[in-house]
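Predict structure. Chain length: 356.
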Amino acid sequence: MRSISFRKVFFLLLICVSFGTISCGGSEGPVLPKAHSKSFQEFKEQHLKLLEQEDISDGTRYGILNSFASNLLAVKDYASAVVFLTEWVEKHPDDTFNAYWLLMTAYSFLEMDSEPLAQYYFERILRNYNDLVVKGKSVHFICLKHLIQISTDPANRISYFNQLITRFPNEVSTTELYYRMALEYEQQGDWTQALKSFQTFLEQDDAPTIQIAGIPNAYQNAKQLIDFNNSSKDWTFETLNGLVRSVKSALNSGDAERLENLKSKVNFFAMSWRQDENAENAQSEFSLASYMFEKSIHFAPKLDESSTPTEAYLRTWGWSSYMNVWYFYFRKVNFPADPDIHGRWEWAGIYYGDKM
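Prediction complete.
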């Protein structure tokens, strides 16, 4: 990447002095007259004459162009900025700073709410131009950040995430990007790559503590998915009725070992209704046998009326004096990565106490 050096700064000051009606505005250079006015057109023409001089240096040419284009943006004349910048790039394909002029073009389209055109220019910069560092910032990095915000295509977003990870690892949270990339693979239905990305996410040092905006419990969610993928999944049932019958049969016979074998072997939880399933103390490894010893456990004849096509609850009681009622929670497995398992049923957890 090349870094821009500013030479002959006095040249810009000369421009300000040359036009009595124009005042210098901050570090960006002269403030333009009202767009499309006669003085504006004269100002533009004289700038172009200066730019066409053969002996002008790259740094001076950059300063004049940047001053002119920046002021077009400052007065919100985005259409004129687009015409000026794209014409310049077309006529001067060897200009070292064309990536930057097209970046300003893309920005103009964003300001005009033309995201598809902005996306076209951001991608054109990445494909066709070497990177530049302008005012300490990489043009390619800026393009990628904007593309991630405006693109809705999973394949494109995956490409942008990969480029940020490989090219700018010190400028982004690669841990977060691995997770977000996994979600994009999910959108594509590419579960092999999604699981690989989730696994890579989990392998990052800061994965257990990272906070990702809009994605609560990212680490726990990824861990549960990977753990489930790596498990035997032999506790699942083809139908809810088959699972419930087996659970009721084990309860009737008092067979704690058989009941234990019906529990999900991954991510099984036991908690009160007010707890979060992702809380550490909700993940349970307790033994049912200690609660069933010399006791008769009872259950409702039917599933709870709040059950849905994807979740079901069975009220049971007789467990202990301090927490007599337990609701067994059954859910349909949501795991498209394995069509043979997706849509089956599992006993996923226990809720203590009567429903709130």
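Summary: The radius of gyration is 32 Å.
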